[in-house]
């Protein structure tokens, strides 16, 4: 059976942007800014997207387009089956991320209704604690997953591509509208100052904690380290310039994350909330508290959570596609059967996270801080040292050559390897301290 492809180039770019733009941009990004020194983090993050994110997208792209396979099959197709464990790390990471990502998305669905009826106004914390775990959370996790399964079942062109062509412009428009609304709030001056006035002093003093957080956020937001970009690029034709596409994708994702900050900080400063209070629930509690208070809060709340739900959906479909493509490519499964089967397994795997906040946090931490950087690090080493010639050749397709290609390989071998490797080492160290295997240094 012939392998599917994207119908259009813009379809591929929007699908990749749809994957990149998600809870990471709107939920995770502003709180990373808050926890890591405000504008100092913003500067480091922008540098990481440019210097590490874009070259790393290309690492996944060349593997995907060269092999025309899912992340595990890719290694076989490239004649390097020995390394297929790297692909397995990616797919397993995707599986775990999807199982709890859809739990958070379920909360978002709940908050659309909660904003419309004002159900959480005045009791934000109690509301979150009530809906976040338990029967309701399981049901909404199932509902969100069912929609995700429905889209992926329809395939690349008729499912994912059509869906993202509607979803991505909608997300951008809704966020732009919210950013204009945020301009009218009392907290806009303080919020912007906190977010935008360059703070090089903090950056210099705390770069050792800001750097790994910024690298981690850049990987997470660009959907790197779990084979999404390998899988999406495996449906791309050879006449397309991967280099240009990676730049467009990173730019659009960054603009949307930046816009989210322009919305969130004025909102939070209007009610004097401290943006640094992180944690999965704090976001919902803090933002919910603001909607209860600010002008037009009900309608703004609904629009905000609808945007968040759409953004989460366009990311969830990309993770599901990674796993589904594995079953289709390697075992010849029918797409519908594979999608349904994987959906059921992901549903079951997510139940513990939907029932218990402690378990949820373990899923989030282990994947985000450990498995994503690990997967990315291994992919980087593979491209840089095992298949460098093939990778360069792949990058040249669809464009006229320049020294940029050789520079890219050199850059991946040095800066990207060191930055992602360092992030991984710091994460492992952090875990070792947390689980008492190592004493914290003074
Ligand atoms: N990039 C998505 C976001 O920012 O929300 C999250 C994500 C999707 C992470 C897909 C990893 C992934 F493979």
TrEMBL record:
Q: Where does this protein reside within or beyond the cell?
A: Membrane
* Keywords noted in UniProt: Membrane, Transmembrane, Transmembrane helix, Transport
Q: Which domain of life does the UniProt lineage start with?
A: Archaea
| Alphabetical list of InterPro entries matching this protein | Na/ntran_symport, SNS_sf, YocR/YhdH-like
Q: Which Pfam families match?
A: SNF
Tell me which PROSITE patterns the record gives: NA_NEUROTRAN_SYMP_3
Give the CC-aspect GO terms: membrane
Q: How does it sit in the membrane?
A: Multi-pass membrane protein
Residues passing through the membrane, by range: 12-30, 42-64, 85-112, 132-156, 168-189, 209-237, 249-269, 299-328, 337-355, 370-387, 408-432
Please list the coiled coil stretches.
Answer: none
Under what name is this protein listed? SNF family transport protein
Q: Which organism is it from?
A: Natronomonas pharaonis (strain ATCC 35678 / DSM 2160 / CIP 103997 / JCM 8858 / NBRC 14720 / NCIMB 2260 / Gabara)
């Amino acid at each position: 059976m012939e392998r599917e492809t994207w119908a259009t180039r813009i379809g591929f770019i929007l699908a990749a942007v749809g994957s990149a733009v998600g809870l990471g941009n709107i939920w995770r990004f502003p709180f990373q800014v808050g926890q890591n020194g405000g504008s100092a983090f913003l500067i480091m993050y922008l540098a990481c997207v440019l210097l590490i994110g874009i070259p790393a997208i290309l690492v996944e792209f060349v593997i995907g387009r060269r092999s025309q396979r899912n992340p595990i099959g890719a290694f076989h197709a490239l004649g390097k089956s020995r390394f297929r464990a790297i692909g397995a790390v990616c797919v397993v990471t995707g599986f775990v991320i999807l199982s709890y990502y859809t739990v958070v998305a379920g909360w978002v669905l709940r908050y659309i209704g909660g904003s419309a009826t004002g159900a959480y106004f005045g009791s934000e914390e109690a509301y979150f604690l009530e809906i976040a775990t338990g029967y309701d959370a399981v049901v909404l996790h199932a509902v969100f997953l069912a929609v995700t399964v429905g889209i992926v079942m329809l395939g690349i062109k008729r499912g994912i591509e059509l869906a993202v062509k509607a979803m991505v412009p909608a997300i951008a428009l809704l966020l732009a509208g919210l950013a204009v609304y945020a301009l009218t709030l009392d907290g806009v001056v303080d919020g912007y100052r906190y977010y935008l006035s360059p703070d090089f002093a903090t950056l210099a003093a705390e770069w050792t904690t800001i750097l790994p957080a910024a690298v981690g956020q850049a990987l997470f937001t660009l959907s790197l380290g779990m084979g999404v970009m390998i899988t999406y690029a495996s449906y791309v034709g050879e006449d397309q310039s991967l280099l240009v596409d990676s730049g467009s994708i990173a730019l659009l994702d960054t603009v949307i994350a930046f816009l989210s900050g322009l919305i969130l900080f004025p909102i939070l400063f209007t009610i004097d909330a401290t943006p640094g209070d992180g944690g999965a629930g704090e976001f919902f509690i803090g933002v919910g508290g603001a909607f209860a208070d600010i002008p037009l809060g009900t309608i703004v709340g609904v629009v905000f959570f609808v945007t968040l739900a759409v953004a989460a959906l366009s990311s969830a479909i990309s993770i599901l596609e990674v796993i589904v493509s594995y079953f289709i490519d390697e075992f010849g499964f029918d797409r519908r059967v594979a999608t349904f089967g994987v959906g059921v397994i992901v549903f079951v795997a997510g139940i513990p996270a939907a029932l218990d906040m402690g378990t949820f946090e373990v899923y989030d931490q282990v994947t985000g801080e450990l498995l994503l950087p690990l997967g990315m690090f291994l992919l980087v080493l593979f491209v840089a040292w095992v298949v460098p010639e093939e990778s360069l050749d792949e990058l040249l397709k669809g464009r006229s050559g320049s020294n940029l290609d050789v520079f890219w390989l050199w850059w991946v071998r040095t800066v990207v390897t060191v930055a992602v490797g360092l992030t991984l080492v710091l994460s492992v160290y952090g875990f070792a301290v947390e689980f008492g295997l190592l004493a914290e240094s003074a």
